[in-house]
Amino acid sequence: MPEKKTKLILDTNIWISFLISDRLKYLDNIIFGHTIQLVFSEELIEEFITVSRRAKFEEFFKEKDIEKLLELFRIYGVLYKIKSRIKNCRDPKDNFLLSLAVDSGADYLTTGDKDLLEIRKIGKTRIISLHELEEIL
């Protein structure tokens, strides 16, 4: 019987930090290994594209680089359609992540966003910091 993969949502702020900072390169083996299933939604991918195109990230993300990253997301991730309309977050623009967590049955939502971190858990999903993810995995 195949081992159950840990379902992991990485918030856009974690993806951006991972991609522009060498200090997070150790996550390569975790994220792109065989024990993690990355969880995405159209909303999360759209947010990543929007953020990565901001002027302050121009030097890090060229259009062809964004396309390559999106292909990696498709290879290593599973795309879920958000059906829930959860409204538990103080910042309404982050509610889609809570809905994704519930709809996907994710084990973890990793973020640096304090509004999400203070919720701690939604459904079966633990909302954790990058530091907590490092300790768990």
Briefly summarize what is shown:
This protein is an alpha/beta fold. It is 44% helix and 16% strand. The two termini are 22 Å apart.
What does the model show?
With 137 residues, this protein is of the alpha/beta class. The protein has a single domain, classed as Rossmann fold. Helices cover 44% and strands 16% of the residues. It has 7 helices and 6 strands; from the N terminus they run E-H-H-E-H-H-E-H-E-H-E-E-H. The protein has helices at 12-20, 27-31, 42-52, 63-76, 95-104, 114-117, 130-136; strands spanning 6-10, 36-40, 77-79, 108-110, 121-122, 125-128. Strands 3-2-1-4-6-5 form a 6-stranded mixed sheet. The chain is globular, with a radius of gyration of 14 Å. 31% of the residues are buried.
- Overall geometry: globular
Total of helices: 7
Mean pLDDT: 90
CATH architecture: 3-Layer(aba) Sandwich
Named CATH topology: Rossmann fold
Largest sheet: 6 strands, mixed
Number of domains: 1
In sequence order, what are the helices and strands, one letter per element?
EHHEHHEHEHEEH
Cα Rg: 14 Å
Which structural class do the helices and strands define? alpha/beta
